[in-house]
Every structure is written in C-alpha cells, then in structure tokens.
Amino acid sequence: MHLEPSEDQVMMTDMFARFLDAESSVARVREAIPQGGFDAALWQGLAEQGALAIRVPESAGGLGMGIFDAALLMEEAGRTLASGPLAEGIVAARLLAQLDPDDASGLRDAVAEGRSLVTLALHDAAAQPSQLVPGGAVAEAVLARDGDAIVLVRPGASRGVEKTLASTPIARLDLGAGQRTVLGQGALARATFAAGLEEWKLLIAAALVGLSKEAIRIAAQYACERVQFGKPIGTYQAVSHPLADAIVAVDAGRLMVWRTIRAIADGEGDAAERISATLWFAGQAAEKAVSRGLHTFGGYGLTLEYDIHLFNLRSRAWLLVLGDPELLLDEAARRRYDGEAVSLPDAGEMAVEFGLGEEAEALAEETRAFFERVLTPELRAKAHYSYAGHDPQVHRQLAEAGLLLPAWPRRIGGREVGTYAIQAAHKVWDDFNWTTHGQGTANIIGLMIDRYGTQQCKDDILSRIIKGEILCALGYSEPGSGSDVFAAKTRATRLPDGSWRIDGSKMFTSGAEHSDYVIMLTRTDPDQPKHKGITMFMVPLKAEGVTIQEVKTFQDERTNITYYDGVVVPDAYRLGEINGGLKVLALGLELEQGMTFSPYHERMVHSAERLLAQTTRHGQPGLADAGARRRLVRALANVAASDLLFYRILWVTAEGKPNFAYGPAVKMFSADTYHADSFDILNLTAPESLAFASADAAFINQCYRHSHVATTYGGTSEVQRSQVAEKQLGLPRTR
Questions:
Q1: C-alpha separations of 405 from 172, 193, 375, 401 in Å
Q2: Which of 58, 154, 372, 383 could form a disulfide with 433, with the two C-beta atoms 3.0–4.6 Å apart?
C-alpha cells in the first residue's frame, strides 16, 4: 500500500501551488468576476506551466502524464478558485490530440499553448442543442457529441452570455448553429469522447476536494480568531464538530478520487461505477464543507467582504453544470445493476497503490482455509458479531494455528506479520461473520502487559493469552462516568503486605462472562488531579468478591456490569507505575484507534440487494426501482469512503507517517454513516426487514440495532469529532 504521490508529483504539485498562489489569489479571483469569471493572464500562465498539455500524449507534443497528475493539479486549482474552465480545457486538449491527430482544425497546438481555448459540451447536442456550456463564454470552440458524430463547433456570435449563480464563464450555446467540423464518427469516436467526459468527472471531483479543504481551513482559522462570550468560537462544539465532519468527508472524497483512478489503471470491473459515485460523494462533501464553512462566519459570511462565499458559489457552478448530482447515483446504479457499458480513459501511470501485498494475501488465504476446515454447520449457525459468537475451542485452535495474534513479536509467541496482513486476515473473519471481539481485546491487553507488566504478570496471564486459553475484558467505564474514564471512582487501596484491595464497579465489561481477567483502571490517589491519580491492574474475575451481572442490550449483544467488593490483587498484577496509569491507558487507547464498521455496513447493503431482488416495489422487482437503487449505491459510496479512511490509518500506522487523528476520523465517519444507512436500509426493505424469517432481513434488522452502539464504541462520535477538530484543524480544545 502506498498512499501518497511520488516525489516527482510532489514537486509538480508544489510548482503549480506556488504559481496559483501568486496568480490566482483571492484578489485576482475577485478581479476576474466582472470579466465573466475568466482570467486570461492566468490561463496563459497555466499553459506555459504545462497545465493544458498535461494529458496530451507525448506523440502529439504534450507531457503525456496520467489522470492522477491532472487530479493533483485540479486540487490546487480548486484550492485557489482558478478563474477558467481548466478541467474542460485539459480534457479538450487531450481529445483534440486523439480525434484530430493531423490538426485539421488548426487548434491542437494552439489549445495546449494557451493561444486558443476549447471546452466541452457535457450533453449530446442531438438531444439538447441549446445547453449551458462551461467556459462557453470565452471558448473559441466547443467539442461536443452530436448523435453519432463528434464535432467541433465554433459558436461565433451565436453564444448567449447570461447571469449565473457563480461568476464562471458559463454560456448557453446553440450547438446546432455556428461553424461545425466533424472530427469523427462511429463507435470509436463516440467512445473516445465518452472517455473524456468520464475523466472530466474525476477532475471536477478533485477540484471540489481542493476547494472544500481551503474553505474549511479558512473557517477553522476564523474560528480560532473570532472571540464570542469571552472565548474563541472554535471552543464551542456547535462550531468545531460540523467542521470536523466536513474535513473527514472531504478527505474521504480525495481518497475516493485516488482509488477510482487506481481502479481504472488496473481495469477493475467496477471502475465506471466508482467514477459516478466519486463525483457524487465529492459534491456532497463540498456542499457540507462550504455551507458549514460559511455558517462559521455567521452573518459576516453573507457579506461580500469575506471570501468564504466565493467558495460556496464556485463549488455549485463547477458541479451543477452537469445537472442534478443525484442523477449520478442513478448512473452508478445503471453501471452496477444493469452492466451499462462505459468507455473509460487511459489512466496513465498511477503512483498510489491500495493493495495489501503478498504477505497479506497469503495470511488471508491461510485464515480462510482454517475457517473452512474448522467451522462446522453448527458453529456457522452460532456465528455472531458479538461475544455471543465466541467459541472457546475455536479460539484455542486459532491460537494453535498461529492465527489468533499473528502480529505479536515472536518472543511472546507471535509471528510478527505486518499490519496489512492483519487487516487482510480480519477481512476473512468478517466474511465468516466470526467475532473478533475476544481476539481484539486480547491483542490490546496482551500488548499492554508486554510493555508494562511484571514478569509474574507475563507468566500468569500473557503466556495464556497467546495460547488462546483465556480471555480478558476491558474495565475502563463506570456507571455515571461514560466516556470520561478519568472520573473513575473504583478504588485500589494498598494493604500492609503490599497487595491491593479493589472496591467499586465497572460498566460495559463486555465478555466478562467468558474472561479470566479484567484490565482495570482504578483510583489510587484521590488527592491528585483525576487523570494523574490512577493506576492500572489485571484483576482476576474468578476471585472472591467479584460479581458479574448480565446487562442485555437491544442489539442482541450482552454486556455486563461487574462489582468488586474487597477483591485482593497482588502488586505483581499492577501495570506500570503507581499513579502512572495514564501512560498505560494511552497505549490501550492507541491500539484501539482506527476501528471501522464498514464490513457490517457493506454486508448490510448486500443483504438489502438480495432481499429487494426477491420482492416488489410499485409493481416491479424491488431492485429495478430507481429510488431503491439510488439509496443502495449511496450507501455503498459511504462504505467505500469508510474503507478508504480506514486504509489511511492502516497506512500511516504501518509506515510511521504523521497521524492527525485519523483513527478517530474513520471511527466517527464509519459509525455515523453505518447508523444513518442502517435506518434507511431498514426502511427501504420494510416490511420484510421487521421479520426474522429471511436471513437477509434478520441481518438488516440486526445491523439497525447494532449501529446504535457503533457511535459509542471506543468513545462517542462527539469525542472523536473533538479530536479531529483539535488535531487536524488546529481548533481550540472543546471539552
């Protein structure tokens, strides 16, 4: 996996960034508005920098670079609100080289050099001769499909410039008038032009990403400076949390652009579907970014003196010229469910790689073979995402096969496999619906013991964890404290013989009914600040004075409240220093970061697809209903975004890259979209989703209930938003 541009691409991006910062400043953008939103000097400068020739083949005198290079350029153009139809110009320059190799039009070289401007018509002129054309107000010619032919139209005086929502050089053109040159006819010409339009969608998505990130940056900076009620407004969660939501969605949109280009480069079967979903998602993320960015400024955001409104209007102009963005979901649905044929562009070289590697593939295959061999029909029927699906014998067999905790160091019984391989193996666990709860908790607690435990603790507990002989539970939360674990009141009192007496209770000790130990956060010095006077212990759950009380939840998942009355624990079971529990806990929370609910989310959508294929809506098969299909592909776009955010935290962890709360970001986004989509899918498949007769209906029902706890696992979404706001946007502390 490699999730960053190459060194050459970084240098190229920096070059364009410096140029655009100088030549497309907000002042220059404002100056271009009375000129119809077009900056001729900027356009010429972009051409001189090679922007318009970036996708022109080298054989035609261009730079011959890939879509990814052009997307990186478009991010910078979006960030600086470049005044001109750059995405259209890049695609048109490439199309001219492909469709007019002999330069019969006399425009091929002139376009690449910035002496002439050619743009694209986004709709078939045969069906829609009069249409709004991006850049049409300043273009010398327009490339358009006209039925079976691809034509070059020189509109001349027939163009009609009109006022639009944003100051971009959009014009309504009559493509049936003016001088016309046929550049090609038949299937090949149409396919070439269609591929250009697909590339345009990706370039616009990239531009929206750049625009959105800058709008959020401006808003976050303002939120740090503007003081209200004696505090910067960024300290208020009503301001910081919406901005955190926005930046996570925009980051997901960027990764979706990259992943889609990778899919085109690799010839993946769902590449066309990804293009439609990516532009839709980037458009939605941009709408969230610019509207929340503007709202951060309050009433000032409505005035023309502040720049934020420019981002709001420009984001709409770049996207809506194609039409209603929701139609992109219909397009994605046709490509997914009807197999609609789509011509795709040549992606060129792609530096970003999403594959997990050979080690990951090998471990996934080994894990799959294990489950296929071990899981009997009875065990498969028992499978459940929670501890209800735990089977002690399978757990031990996984350990014996070296598949329980393969990432652990060899010195404590592991195989030292890499982060990517662990993810690939976990995907197989998800495929078999086999619970990872016990394994995940064992991993966290075992590594905490390895770093902070005494030798006796390692001999008594760690050695048995790796053999699959025991489970352990987490004992952080308490009744009344919720996510504020430092409000713990459970006391650990030192006894004369050096041991400790534990008194108190812990809430949500899931798996305690299967476990031998609980890792417990206790208060050892009530006179110190609450985050300093805590100490961590491994407490035997079978000791005298321990009571485990079942707590049933409505998502078919048992948890527990556990009581500790005079439980004596040897000092050898203390982790870390006395009153130094914060350091120990920090490791546990670090290991817990980056969870995602996308596996459940994706399986839920597939269950809905199967269920709808067997039912009817409005007198037709459910999966043929346009509204139903739109909702399904929207949910799948959210799944793709969650997956990619998870891949990001996977990558930065594996490669030691800077981490700006990327773990909280994926947890928050995946939980919230899973929750929202589970509600919608439950509705979509009603009334069947109410019943348990169908396995798919029952699973949808379960996901709806499970999704509610997703927003609280590992800290609530609100806690995650605060971390994103502080660490990624630089906003003041909000809690």
A1: 63, 52, 19, 10
A2: 383
Query: According to CATH, where is 1.10.540.10 located in the chain?
Result: 7-192
- Note whether 520 and 539 are within 8 A (CB): yes
Q: Are 391 and 468 contacting, i.e. CB atoms less than 8 angstroms apart?
A: no
With H, G, I as helix, E, B as strand and everything else as coil, classify residue 597.
Answer: coil
Q: Which of 730, 732, 698, 575 is nearest to 247 (CA)?
A: 730
Peptide bond into 242 cis (omega under 30): no
In the chain, DSSP finds a helix count (H) and a strand count (E) of: 24, 19
Q: Under DSSP, is residue 490 helix (H, G, I), strand (E, B) or coil?
A: coil
CA-nearest of 475, 486, 472, 478 to 443 is 472
Q: What stretch(es) of the chain map to CATH 2.40.110.10?
A: 472-592
**CATH architecture observed for domain 598-727:** Up-down Bundle (1.20)
Residue 644: what pLDDT?
Answer: 98
b/e map 244-262, b = 16+ CB within 10 Å: bbbbbbbbbbbbbbbbbbb
Give the pLDDT confidence of 322-376 residue by residue, as tens digits. Answer: 999 999 999 999 999 999 999 999 999 999 999 999 999 999 999 999 999 999 9
| Lookup: tokens for 212 | 């959105």
CATH 1.20.140.10 in the chain: give the residue spans: 598-727
DSSP character for 561? E
Phi and psi, residue 186, nearest 5°: 95, -175
- Confirm if 730 and 677 have CB atoms less than 8 A apart: no
**d(Cα 468, Cα 474) in Å, to the nearest integer?**
17
Q: What is the DSSP letter of 721?
A: H
Type of residue at 70 = A
Strands 517-523 and 472-475: parallel
3-class DSSP state of 87: helix
| Sign of CA pseudo-dihedral 427, 429, 434, 440 | negative
Cα angle value 503/507/508 (rounded, 5°): 140
Distance CA 640, CA 259 (A): 9
* C-beta atoms surrounding 184 within 10 Å: 19
Task: Given CATH 2.40.110.10, say whether it is the number of domain 472-592.
Answer: yes
CB 28 within 8 A of CB 22: no
Q: How far apart are the C-alpha atoms of 56 and 108, rounded to whole Å?
A: 10
Largest CA distance in the chain: 99
Neighbours of 556 (CB within 10 A): 15
Parallel/antiparallel/unpaired status of strands 118-120 and 141-146: parallel
Cα separation, 246 vs 220, whole angstroms: 11
- The reported pTM is 0.94
**In order along the chain (735 residues), what is the average pLDDT of each group of 10 residues?**
96 97 96 91 96 95 96 98 96 95 87 93 95 93 96 78 81 90 95 98 98 97 93 94 97 98 97 98 97 94 92 92 96 97 96 95 97 96 91 97 96 95 94 93 95 97 96 91 80 97 95 96 91 94 96 89 97 96 86 84 96 89 93 98 96 93 94 97 94 91 92 84 94 83
CA-CA distance, 667 to 304, in Å (whole number)?
37
The structure tokens listed for 57 are: 């083949």
DSSP secondary structure letters along 498-545: S-EEEEEEEE--TTTTT-SEEEEEEES-TTS-TTTSEEEEEEETTSTT
What distance in Å separates the CA atoms of residue 641 and residue 647, rounded to the nearest whole number?
Answer: 10
Separation CA 389–CA 560 (nearest Å): 16
Residue 369 near residue 402, CB atoms below 8 Å: no
**700: its two tokens:** 């949808």
